[in-house]
Each structure stands twice: as C-alpha cells, then as structure tokens.
Write a structure and sequence with these properties.
The chain is an alpha/beta fold. The protein contains ten helices and nine strands. The protein has a single domain, classed as TIM Barrel, CATH 3.20.20. The relative contact order is 0.14. GO terms for molecular function: isomerase activity. This is Sugar phosphate isomerase/epimerase.
C-alpha cells in the first residue's frame, strides 16, 4: 500500500475535500517532505498542467502521480456520462478520454466520480445505468489501450442516485465488456452507505483499485469516528497494493491536515512506509 495526498488546482472547487490548493510545486514539495509516496491531482482539464513540468517536479521531489480526477468536467462544463442529451454524453466521454491519456503519461489512472451523474427527472434509473455502462465500456477500453486502469467511484446517496455501495459497484463492473475498470473505495462515502466498511472491502476484494482516506466527517483520518483498525486489516486481507489517498477537508489547515494524515498512515498502515 502506498500513500498519497490530494492537490486541487481548480478554484471553482475550492470548498471541496482537498488537502493542498493552488500551487502545484509547493504542494508536491510539502508532500515529499512529509513522506507521501504520491499526489493525486485535480486539474481543470488534461492540458492545464504541462506534462514536462509535472514530470520534472515529480523527479525533483521524488513523488509519483497516484491518480487524476475528472470532476472539473462536471463542475466547469456540466458534463456527465448519464446526461439525457447524447451530445453531452459524447463530450463527457471525450473529456475523460483526454484525462486518461494525461494520467497514463505518468502511469496514473483517471477517476470517474461526479461525472457519472444521476438519473435526472424524466429518466428511468435503468436507462441512466445503461448510459453509464456504455461510457465505462468505451473509457475502460481507452484506459486499456493506454496501459492503465480506469477508476469508478460509488458515491453516497446525497451525491448520486446510481451506485452508492461497493457491492453495487462490483455488480456494475461485472456487467461491463471491459475488465480494466476498478472501484474506488472512498471511506467517507462508505461511512454513509455501508453496514460494515471492513466487510464491504473484503467482499469487493480485487475489484478495488484505489482508496480515498478520509474520516466519517471528511476530515483527516483520526478526527472523526471511523474505525480504522478493522479497515486496515481488511485491506491487508485482500492484499491491496494500490494507493490510499487523502481526499479530506484541509482541517484545520492544509499543513496540519497533511501531517495528521501521514501520522494516521504510520499508525494504521505501517507497511506503507516499509514497502
């Protein structure tokens, strides 16, 4: 298991659960100083950061890119994979395809969270899920062609009416034609939807390709009531080898939030820093 911390470079999502903001170089330097293995990036588009600059910073600070988020496609452009308008769905696929190619340059998967959308009024949920599966099949093939996985994130009921639990996410992935799509196990969303976070992780097993590390109140782990010991054991039981990335509010400030996060990694997931 490897540690990561989020850096968001999109002013329009400033109130979101991201540890570091605005300054890519400073965020990467601070992540490296604390001992994080990687950073997870949220950019406005695939061309918002020059790949050469990102590679240079990664080499300079010795940190990898764990994943790239696609949420700006919805926030800035209103794009989702389940929009009733096929032209909008096509634009959403194109936006995510570009993010897949950008991330693949660093061996990093793209994450589909908010861009999955919802079953909006007038659209049956079954139809929205069919559109979602169509998009994931296309994008999963794109990820395969680029040598990376695609990460799909079940969200809590207040953010989507499509897939809320890992079990339902597994069933969705099993229905796809492409097997290069993996699940994101976000501990915050799971605290709302799952009966047992540890049991859900064990059941999903190898379908999990990424983990978001946040407490029950979406503050850094250790500042809410999430029972991390059982979760850490479950991740070890499924032999999870991917990134565990802090997508949490920068509370009380980014530096203290990052410090709290890395201390929690060392407490609950000591193997992260031994591998």
């Amino acid at each position: 298991m490897k540690s990561a911390v989020t850096i968001a470079l999109v002013p329009e999502i400033k109130t979101g659960p991201w540890i570091y903001w605005h300054d890519l170089e400073t965020g990467m330097a601070k992540a490296a100083d604390l001992g994080f293995d990687a950073v997870e990036l949220f950019t406005a588009s695939a061309d918002a950061v020059a790949p050469d600059r990102l590679a240079a910073l990664g080499n300079q600070f010795g940190v990898n890119i764990a994943a790239v988020g696609t949420g700006a496609g919805k926030v800035l452009q209103g794009l989702t994979l389940t929009d009733p308008d096929p032209a909008v769905r096509s634009k959403a696929v194109a936006f995510i395809s570009d993010m897949i190619a950008f991330g693949a340059g660093f061996g990093a998967p793209a994450i589909i969270g908010s861009m999955q959308g919802n079953a909006v009024p007038g659209v049956e949920r079954a139809q929205a899920l069919e559109w979602l599966a169509e998009g994931l099949n296309i994008l999963g093939k794109q990820a395969e062609d680029n040598g990376v996985k695609l990460i799909y994130e079940p969200l809590n009921r207040y953010e989507t009416n499509l897939i809320n639990r890992l079990e339902d996410g597994v069933n969705l992935l099993k229905s796809l034609d492409n097997q290069h799509v993996k699940l994101l196990a976000d501990l915050f969303h799971m605290n709302i939807e799952e009966t047992s976070l540890a049991d859900s992780i064990r059941s999903a097993g190898s379908y999990i390709g990424h983990v978001h590390f946040a407490d029950s109140n979406r503050r850094p782990i250790g500042l809410g009531h999430t029972e991390m010991t059982a979760i850490a054991t479950a991740l070890q039981d499924i032999d999870y080898q991917g990134y565990i990335s802090a997508e949490a509010f920068p509370w009380p400030d980014p530096d203290q939030a990052a410090k709290q996060t890395i201390e929690s990694f060392k407490k609950y997931l000591p193997r992260t820093h031994e591998l």
